[in-house]
Design brief:
Layout: H1 7-19, H2 25-36, H3 42-55, E1 58-65, E2 73-79, H4 81-100
Helix pairs in contact: 1-2
Length: 107
């Protein structure tokens, strides 16, 4: 089920790419909150991650149990080739729009 990539979905995919092997739910929330000044909930993040996985843009796996989580395991996320392709398509579109803008966007 591929489809439209929303602005927040793009932000989550790029954050997964930035965090690499440390891309799990709470780390994603913290990074996005810090970088984008958002106040995200775990529920909102979970629904976005589920949607991205359904679209085939990410996969997930469970890490090892940790003492800090009372023996629970973290779910980690990775980009798929479709996710990377979708990000590249969005970047190309944005680059084209910036390059062809009739208004000076330089500040």
């Amino acid at each position: 089920m591929k489809g439209y990539l929303g602005e927040f979905e793009e932000l989550v995919l790029l954050t997964i790419a930035n965090l690499g092997s440390d891309a799990y739910g709470l780390a994603l929330i913290r990074d996005i909150n810090e970088r984008a000044g958002r106040n995200l909930s775990m529920g909102g993040m979970h629904s976005t991650l589920t949607r991205l996985e359904e679209k085939g843009y990410i996969t997930s796996y469970l890490g090892e149990p940790t003492n800090e989580r009372g023996g629970r395991r973290k779910r980690y996320f990775e980009l798929t080739s479709s996710g990377i392709a979708s990000l590249n398509d969005m970047k190309a579109l944005r680059d084209e729009l910036w390059a062809n803008a009739k208004v000076n966007l330089s500040i």
